[in-house]
C-alpha cells in the first residue's frame, strides 16, 4: 500500500513519491531547536513526529537523509523581527559566552533525542545532519545577495528586508488574509513596506549595545549584523539536501510566518519549489493552553524522569494520538501509558528470546495504518490486540511486535525496561540518577563517578549493568 502523507501545502492526503529517480532516497528537513534554553516536552513532540516519519519511510525501504538545524543566532523573542535575540537573552541571563550557551543547550537537546530513541541522535554533532546557523553565515549572506539581485530586498535603518508584495504567492501557503493582517496591525509598519515583510539580515544595534555574535553585513552595507531567523533554513536545507527536497516539517506554529517566509525567499531566489511535502505536528497544551516558555507551563523530559515517567513512556503517550491532533498534557495520562508500556515489556519479555515469524495479517494491518499518514494510535491498539491474541505463539507475537517497534521505537526488545524500573526513591536521588544517566550516555566518566559518590552519601548504591543503572539501599 502506498504511503499517504498529509501535505499542508495542498491541505490533502497525497501519495508519497520521492524526487530521487531511483526511488530509494528521501531528503527531509526538520526545523530544529533554538538553543537558548532546554527544550520542553512540547518542542520534543516535533522531533518524535519527525522520527516516526523517518522510521515509516525506512520501513517502506527508503534511506532517509535527515537534517535538523540548530538555531544558534537570530531568533528574536517575538518570532517576528522585534525584540532581543534569544541567544543574547540567554547570555545575559547566565553570564556566559554564546558558545557556552550553545554547547550547553545543544548537548541537552542531543541527550533528549537519545533518551527518546530518536534515530537522528546517532548523527549528533555531524554538521551535515545538525547544521548550526553560525557555521553557515557565508551561505546565508550569499542567499541574501541572490534575493537582492532579483529585486526582492530593500534596506532600512535596522536591516535588509524581503518585500513580500513582490512575491505574489506569499499568502498562498498559509492561506493568509493579508488585508486583515494589514488592518489589524497594532504596531506601525515603521520602515517596513508591508506588514508581512521580514528581515533577511539585521544590523547590530547602533546604541552602543555590543552583540557578541555579529558579522560583516552583506550587499556592501557598512557595519556588522546577523542573519534573520528564516534565512538559515533556506540556506542550509539547500546546501545539504538540494532544492527542491522531499519533506519539510515543523510545528503548526511555523505555517504562517517561518515556513511562509522560507518559501518566499527560497523560491524567489531560485525559481524552484523549496520542498514537495510540508508536514506539521500539532501542539501540546496544558489545561488547554499551548505549552510555552512565556506562559511558564513547560515541563522538561527531566521533570518527567524525576516523577518516574521514562522518556519512552512519554514517547508512547505521544504515539497514542495522531501527530495532527492537539494533545493535552496530564500526569494521569502519562501514568496510564507508563503502565501500558510496562505491561507490553513484561509480556514480550515473558516470551523469551527464541526467534519467531512475523504474522502476515498483523503486518499487513500495521502497514495499512502507518502508511495512512502515520496513524500511530491504530498501530498502538493493534499492538495490544496482538499481545492479547491467544491463537499465536509467544515467539511469533514477539517477532511481530518487534517489527512494529521499528517504527514505534519503544525498545520493546529491551526487557525489563531499565528506565521504568525506578523504585520509590527520594526526589533528590532520582534527580542525581537522571543526571548520572545523561553523564553516562555522554561518556563523561568523571561526572558519573562523582554522582555515584553523591548518591552513596544519601544511602544508596548504584551499579552499572548492561540494562542500565541499578540502585539499591545500602
Ligand atoms: P523552537 O525551539 O521554539 O524554535 O521550537 C522548536 C519546535 O517546537 C518547533 O517545531 C515548534 O513548532 C515546536 N513547538 C513549540 N511549542 C510547542 C508546543 N506547545 N507543542 C508542540 N510543539 C511545539
Ligand atoms: Zn526552519
Protein described:
The protein is an alpha/beta fold and 474 residues long. The protein has three domains: 4-281, Rossmann fold (3-Layer(aba) Sandwich); 285-408, no CATH class; 425-473. The chain is 41% helix and 15% strand. It contains 15 helices and 16 strands. It has helices at 41-59, 86-94, 98-115, 137-149, 178-184, 231-241, 255-270, 301-305, 311-319, 331-350, 360-370, 376-387, 394-408, 427-441, 445-457; strands spanning 4-7, 12-15, 25-30, 63-68, 153-155, 159-162, 198-203, 215-216, 224-227, 245-251, 275-281, 284-286, 289-290, 327-328, 460-465, 468-473. The strands form five sheets. A five-stranded antiparallel sheet has the order 5-6-7-9-8, covered by helices on one side. A four-stranded parallel sheet has the order 4-3-10-11, with helices on both faces. Helix 9 crosses helix 10 and helix 11 (360-370) runs antiparallel to helix 12. The protein is globular. The N and C termini lie far apart (56 Å). The mean pLDDT is 92. It binds adenosine monophosphate (AMP) and zinc ion.
Q: Which structural class should the secondary elements be placed in? A: alpha/beta
Output the CATH homologous superfamily of the largest domain. Answer: HUPs
Helix content: 40-55%
Radius of gyration: 24 Å
Q: How does CATH name the architecture of the largest domain?
A: 3-Layer(aba) Sandwich
Report the mean per-residue pLDDT as an integer: 92
Q: Which consecutive residue ranges, at least 5 long each, have pLDDT under 50?
A: none
* Widest β-sheet, arrangement of strands: 5-6-7-9-8
- The helix count comes to 15
Distance between the termini: 56 Å
Bound molecules: adenosine monophosphate, zinc ion
Main CATH class of the largest domain: Alpha Beta
Q: What is the tally of beta strands?
A: 16
The percentage of residues in β strands lies in 15-25%
Let me know the largest β-sheet. 5 strands, antiparallel
Give the overall shape, derived from the CA principal axes. Answer: globular
